[in-house]
């Protein structure tokens, strides 16, 4: 079972892959070099988005703690 952050990461990776015109369920059909590059780019994209989510979460916590 995936944690909520793992689920979000997986969704972001799939979103990126779809945005590049590929079906995440059919990556095995993509040539290995293209697939590797795509997965690296998707991972970097997802990592950046997760950092953004975490920063917003901390910001909201700070705002609530000041109240």
Question: What is shown here, in short?
Answer:
The protein has 67 residues and is mainly α.
Structure keywords:
67 residues; mainly alpha; 2 helices; 0% strand
Structural overview:
- The protein has 67 residues and is mainly alpha-helical.
- It has one domain (4-66).
- The protein has two helices and no strands.
- Helix 1 (4-19) packs across helix 2 (32-66).
- The longest helix has 35 residues, at 32-66.
- It is elongated, with a radius of gyration of 15 Å.
Which of globular, elongated, flat, extended, rod-shaped describes the shape?
A: elongated
* Beginning-to-end CA distance, first to last residue: 36 Å
| Average pLDDT, all residues | 90
- Oligomeric state of the chains present here: single chain
- Element-level helix/strand string: HH
Unreliable segments (pLDDT under 50, ≥5 consecutive)?
none
Number of strands: 0
Number of helices: 2
Layout: helices, strands, pairs:
Layout: H1 4-19, H2 32-66
């Amino acid at each position: 079972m995936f944690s909520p952050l793992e689920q979000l990461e997986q969704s972001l990776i799939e979103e990126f892959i779809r945005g590049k015109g590929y079906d995440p369920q059919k990556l095995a059909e993509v040539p290995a070099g293209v697939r590797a590059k795509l997965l690296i780019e998707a991972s970097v994209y997802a990592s950046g988005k997760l950092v953004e989510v975490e920063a917003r979460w901390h910001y909201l916590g700070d705002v609530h703690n000041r109240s």
